[in-house]
Amino acid sequence: MVADSSELVLDSVDREILRLLQKDGRMSNVQLAEQVNLSPPACLRRVQRLEASGVIAGYVMLVDPRRVGKKTSLFVEITLQSQSEEAVSAFEKAVIGCPGVMECYFMAGDVDYLLRVLVNDPEDYEFLYRRHLSRLPGVARIKSNLALRSVSRRTEVEL
Predict the structure, then answer these.
(1) 19 in the same domain as 71
(2) pLDDT of the residue at 8
(3) In a domain, 80, yes or no
(4) 91 and 126 assigned to the same domain
(5) Residue ranges of the chain whose pLDDT lies below 70
(6) Straight-line distance from the first to the last Cα atom of the chain, in angstroms, rounded to the nearest whole number
(7) pTM
(8) Gap between the Cα atoms of 35 and 29, Å rounded
(9) Looking at residue 1, what is its pLDDT?
(10) What average pLDDT is seen over the chain?
(11) Number of Cβ atoms within 10 Å of the Cβ of 46
(12) What is the dihedral of CA 84, 90, 94, 96, to 10 degrees?
């Protein structure tokens, strides 16, 4: 893979730092430095460079949705009436504020958008559908697919 001019060139130490931080974002700099065989100041400089360049986009903790009552996952396909720049822009602006929508992807293919939605139960999804999804601007068609269970879920990017 050839890096473009805005892409930071990563060496094996950078990749190991990223691999370790993806597994445990709360790891202390001293622990991280020990595991990658750097001094703490050198390790910190590398992490700061990765953050400043945007390779490290942020830090989060993961919540198990089932443990907080969000037991129903759905994948929702949205087709717009028009794919004009105005219609796409209006839809995208509105969907960002839509409750329960965890992810939204602009697609190539048969549908315009694919949403991953988390809700408490089917009744909660019906409320979301009636009050939010069906009212998004420019929507021509909504098709919902219920996920029975998660087989694989990753948060780590392969490096």
Answers:
(1) no
(2) 86
(3) yes
(4) yes
(5) 1-6
(6) 12
(7) 0.84
(8) 10
(9) 41
(10) 94
(11) 20
(12) 70
Q: Report if residue 7 sits inside a domain.
A: no
| Dist. CA 35–CA 31, nearest whole Å | 6
Burial of 125 (0-12, 13-18, 19+ CB in 10 A): buried
pLDDT for the residue 72: 95
Whichever domain contains 45, its CATH number is 1.10.10.10
Does a structural domain hold residue 28?
yes
Which domain covers residue 32, as residue numbers? 12-52
Angle at 148 between CA 127 and CA 131, to 5 degrees: 10
Strands 113-119 and 101-106: antiparallel
Burial of 133 per CB tally in 10 Å (0-12, 13-18, 19+): buried
> pLDDT tens digit string along 67-94?
999 999 999 999 999 999 999 999 999 9
- In this structure, what token pair is assigned to residue 4? 């473009």
Together in a domain, 79 and 142: yes
Number of structural domains the chain divides into: 2
Residue found by looking up tokens 């965890």 in the block? 102
One domain, residues 28 and 81: no
With respect to residue 153, please indicate whether it lies within any of the assigned structural domains.
Answer: no
**What would the two tokens of residue 95 be?**
């969907």
